[in-house]
Design goal:
This protein folds into five domains: 77 residues, Alpha-Beta Plaits (2-Layer Sandwich), CATH 3.30.70; 271 residues, no CATH class; 89 residues, Distorted Sandwich (Calcium-transporting ATPase, cytoplasmic transduction domain A); 129 residues, HAD superfamily/HAD-like (Rossmann fold), CATH 3.40.50.1000; 118 residues, 3-Layer(aba) Sandwich (Calcium-transporting ATPase, cytoplasmic domain N), CATH 3.40.1110. It has 28 helices and 28 strands.
Length: 752
């Protein structure tokens, strides 16, 4: 099948950063591929094609398979279930590694005891060697170690030597060469000792067998830990209903949700999960949205209200009408966004990739140098072999490959549980470095539920008639001020007429003819532009209302100001606390609004906002954000409307509140699902915690190698007289990856 968009694949069998590089190189070698990114943590590959390019996607699968890995194209039909498939693959891998480990343990334990028994249980070792000939014990070690290599350890050798012959060595190559060298040297020492220098015919079968056993243990523990990294997405997937009770052919029947069409009527009983995004057509109930939006309190839903698939119906039966198909539901989009964030490389990952690309070849060169150095200048050939094998085994590119993507995978999943969606993974890094957050006022800091509070008119004007006229003028507008005026007229049950010659004066107000009279509603600038002058009393009213935090509007009729109205939009209840949290984190705040300067400063004083821009036109927001970036550094912008889209795009991080328009959400880097402003602080804290976690992982991964490779190379022997055994190397290597994954899993416990 030809594919024109980005292609996603599930890839299984990868162990380390070198494996990732092999797969990426294989994919980019396919004609038509622009770039490829492979995530070791979630076992996925993300391919971007060149513009206007079509390719046979099976070529991508073939390229990966040739490198020794398994691959599967993820289609729209199966991608939502891909996390479940990945989880199952990890469980399968964990079971396989566990079985391999126990087989290796049974085989290697006798080898270890017979070789190291004199240190562990001296009486037993004395008895063993007095009853069984040394040559017999050595031959038994050879047989058991060979079985470990041929069966539970076979994958290391088949994959490792394949990568080596492909000139792209990886972790498997290091294990294969290291354990294989110990085994081969021991075979020569046992069966052809005359080929070795005098005193160098020591056998190290226990090193080969125990090294493989310990690394298998590490891989088993790593697979178990990695299985927990995707729990957040899997918990979202579990919210998806498989069937729904749909009204078809004059009866209620159960249908798979994939067969539900927009407009279908669905019955949801008390306590059941709402199967699909829909609108309530009958009934009233409280719906628990915590698992999707992070909103802790159940929300009352009645006729006309929207409900989200995956949320839980409360105490009453609802009849709903589907507004989306299953693959386009809110829940499906959340899962896609989380997966998309995990498919992004942070800038730091590119540096890691550069290092890991050379890591294994450099380790091979170091091991060769160690071998030659100890052979030439050391006490014996056996020391050269042991130290070189220790270097090969202790080096661990796995931890490097897992350090960044594992943290991102856990963090983006945890963020989704808290009601935060990162549309790109690099937003995690950007958000952690934010110096200032700018807020749109209306609908972001306020509730977007304006109320007409004042209507001050000259004496001869009939208030109800005027209210009916200006409501008629505004009835087709969605502006918050218009909504407040229309609602006030409806509450008085006033009748409307159709306006004529309606004009929107951007950033200033509106004008139209109603019942033959020309009206102007807006700011002082609107009046100035039409040579209309308010008197001093009207100016005082206008400013007094603004000082009270209300939005004042002049009303002019036929070139004469006849009054002033004021609309009040209450602040969100959590707004003050949200700003306090940001200040506590050392982040400055700004507010951008088209409101009167006095109104804006009144609101800013209530919230303790640092910087205020008032009386701005919608097109000015992006310019103001650019100015804030120049003055304060990295800037985030929080908004919800269509006119916020340019500012969201201009900001280093655009944050859209979940109830905002689709345009705003598409322009944002981060989406807040629950509309709670305090989630901004949670998102920043989580991003900072994630960067700290990544730095800890990278420090461990690099410090581990920097510290242990010299010790394994012989520094420990020179300092203490003790050899750094390959068994110590295997223990350290096994634990390094487990540490990185376990450290990343701490992000699951993040609390705001």
């Amino acid at each position: 099948m030809a594919q024109t968009n980005g292609i996603h694949l599930a890839v299984h069998g990868m162990n380390c950063a070198a494996c990732v590089r092999h797969v990426e190189n294989a994919l980019t070698s396919v004609e038509g591929v622009e770039k490829a990114f492979v995530n070791l943590a979630n076992a996925k590959a993300y391919v971007t094609l060149l513009p206007n390019t079509q390719i046979n996607e099976e070529l991508l699968v073939e390229a990966i398979v040739k490198k020794g890995f398994e691959a599967q194209i993820l289609t729209a039909a199966n991608e939502l279930n891909a996390p479940v498939a990945a989880q199952q693959a990890l469980k399968k891998e964990a079971r396989k590694k566990r079985a391999q480990f126990f087989i290796a343990l049974v085989l290697s334990l006798p080898v270890f005891i017979t070789d190291m028994g004199s240190h562990l249980i001296p009486p037993f070792a004395h008895w063993l060697h007095s009853h069984i000939a040394a040559s017999t014990l050595a031959f038994m070690q050879f047989v058991l170690a060979t079985l470990v290599i041929l069966f539970p350890g076979r994958d290391f050798f088949t994959l490792g030597f394949k990568s080596l012959f492909d000139r792209s060595p990886d972790m498997n190559s290091l294990v294969a060469i290291g354990a294989g060298s110990a085994w081969l040297y021991s075979v020569v020492a046992l069966f052809m000792p005359q080929l070795l220098p005098a005193g160098a015919n020591h056998i190290y079968f226990e090193a080969a067998a125990v090294v493989i056993t310990l690394i298998l243990l590490g891989k088993y523990l790593e697979a178990r830990a990695k299985g927990q990294t995707g729990e957040a997405i899997n918990s979202l997937l579990k919210l998806q209903s498989h069937t729904a009770r749909v009204y078809k052919d004059e009866k209620w029947i159960d249908l798979p949700i994939e067969q539900i069409a927009v407009g279908d009527r669905i019955l949801v009983r008390a306590g059941e999960a709402i199967p699909i995004d829909a609108t309530v057509t009958e009934g009233q109930s409280h719906v628990n949205e915590a698992m999707v939006t992070g909103e802790s309190m159940p929300i009352n839903k009645g006729v006309g209200d929207a409900v989200i698939g995956g949320t839980i119906n409360g105490n009453a039966t609802l009849t709903i009408e589907a507004t989306q198909i299953a693959s386009q539901s809110t829940l499906a989009n959340i899962i896609r966004l989380v997966e998309s964030a995990q498919a992004t490389k942070l800038p730091v990952q590119n540096k890691v990739d550069t290092i890991t690309a050379w890591f294994v070849p450099v380790v091979l060169v170091i091991a060769l140098a160690v071998f030659l150095g100890w052979w030439a200048f050391g006490p014996g050939l056996n020391y050269a072999v042991v130290n070189a094998v220790a270097v090969l085994i202790v080096a661990c590119p796995c931890a490097m490959g897992l350090a960044v993507p594992t943290s991102i995978m856990v963090a983006t999943g945890r963020a989704a549980q808290l009601g935060v969606l990162f549309r790109q993974g690099d937003a995690l890094q950007q958000l952690a470095e934010i110096k200032l957050i700018a807020f749109d006022k209306t609908g972001t800091l306020t509730q977007a539920k304006p109320v007409l509070q004042d209507l001050l008119l000259i004496d001869e004007i009939d208030e109800d008639r005027l209210l009916a006229d200006i409501a008629s003028l505004q009835q087709h507008s969605e502006h918050p001020i218009a909504t407040a005026i229309v609602d006030a007229a409806k509450n008085k049950q006033l009748s409307f007429t159709q306006p004529q010659d309606f004009v929107t004066h951007t950033g200033m107000g509106v004008s139209a003819k109603v019942n033959g009279s020309q009206y102007y509603l807006g700011s002082a600038r609107l009046l100035e532009n039409h040579d209309i002058k308010p008197d001093e009393i009207q100016k005082n009213h206008y400013e007094q209302l603004a000082q009270q935090g209300k939005t004042p509007v002049y009303i002019a009729l036929n070139q004469q100001v006849i009054g002033v109205l004021a609309v009040m939009d209450a602040l969100r209840p959590e707004a003050i606390e949200a700003i306090e949290q940001l200040h506590a984190q050392g982040i400055k705040t700004a507010m951008i609004t088209g409101d009167h300067t006095l109104t804006a400063h009144h609101v800013a004083e209530q919230l303790n906002i640092d910087v205020v821009y008032a009386q701005t036109e919608p097109g000015d927001k992006a310019k103001i954000v650019a100015q804030l970036q120049a003055n304060y550094g990295k800037t985030a912008f929080v908004g919800d409307g269509i006119n916020d889209a340019p500012a969201l795009a201009q900001a280093d991080i655009g944050i859209a509140v979940g109830a905002g328009t689709d345009v705003a959400i598409e322009s944002a880097n981060v989406v807040l699902l629950n509309n709670d402003l305090r989630t901004n602080s949670a998102a920043i804290l989580l991003s900072q915690a994630t960067l700290r976690n990544i730095k800890q992982n990278l420090f461990w991964a690099f410090a581990y190698n920097i510290a242990l490779i010299p010790l394994a190379a012989g520094l420990l022997l020179l300092m203490t007289g003790h050899v750094f055994s390959p068994i110590y190397s295997a223990i350290a290597m096994a634990l390094s990856s487990v540490f990185v994954v376990s450290n990343a899993l701490r992000l699951k416990r993040f609390r705001n």
